[in-house]
Amino acid sequence: MSLELVRFDTQLMENPEVKGVEYQQGTLAGYEVREYLLEKWNHHCSYCGKTDVPLHVEHIRPRAHGGTNRVSNLCLACEKCNTAKGTKDIAAFLKKKPDVLQRIQAQAKAPLKDAAAANASRWALFDRLKATGLPVEVGSGGLTKFNRTSRELPKTHWLDATCVGKSTPEKLLVQQVVPLLITATGHGNRQMCLPDTYGFPRTSAKGAKKVKGFQTGDMVKAIVTRGKKKGTYVGRVAVRRTGSFNIKTRRETIQGVSYHYCHMLHQSDGYSYIQGGVLPPHA
């Protein structure tokens, strides 16, 4: 099993010169840092605020003046600002924009606590997977993007999943694959009851309501053999105590379908399932 354990490799970003880890040198190191900088600086030029333009990794304190490659000394700059700044000290470059200077200095020094918090929360999943006794490899978001880009695959969630970890094959056979797209939808409102204007309960506690073995959210197939609604419908059901259900298909909502015509396909579990698109043969 391949697990994208961390979004960013914080050790690599804080000290790109560190030795001893195979992928910390070369092309991948740049991927890890660049991905983090794009998020940290919100895909904007740090100096002029432009977006949707090519952005360069910029040394706040120039290397020529002793600046390092640590992520705390890096920001993003458009080509125009990057060229204009050159090897100037940032204080000199932004002497007429003290507010921008203050913002960049504060944002640059912000710790990697956001990345660290997200990284730490994923160890619980790693421990659960290891407990199965199956072999588990881990990687980072930067490694996943490197694998996907080097194999010239388009950006999709399911293709990212195929590119997690160092075991990713050099050639992936993904043509004509139809992925199952799973989305967490939840189980409805967590609110147990509705309050009045004073905050006191005005309705009784809600529970999972089942009618004739069905509950709202179940996936059903209804084969109606007679009447105005004659036809076959597949979709999510909204139950009614009368036994006359509504079925929401991809295109429309069919109202007033008797439970007698409904057959259970999948019980509601808080997720939705749809078939994804197919890649063209040349992808």
Automatic annotation (TrEMBL):
InterPro entries: HNH, HNH_nuc, NA-targeting_endonuclease, RNA-guided_IscB-like. It comes from the Bacteria. Residues 32-83 form the HNH nuclease domain. GO terms for molecular function: endonuclease activity; nucleic acid binding; zinc ion binding. PANTHER family: OS07G0170200 PROTEIN (PTHR33877:SF2), SLL1193 PROTEIN (PTHR33877). This is HNH nuclease domain-containing protein.
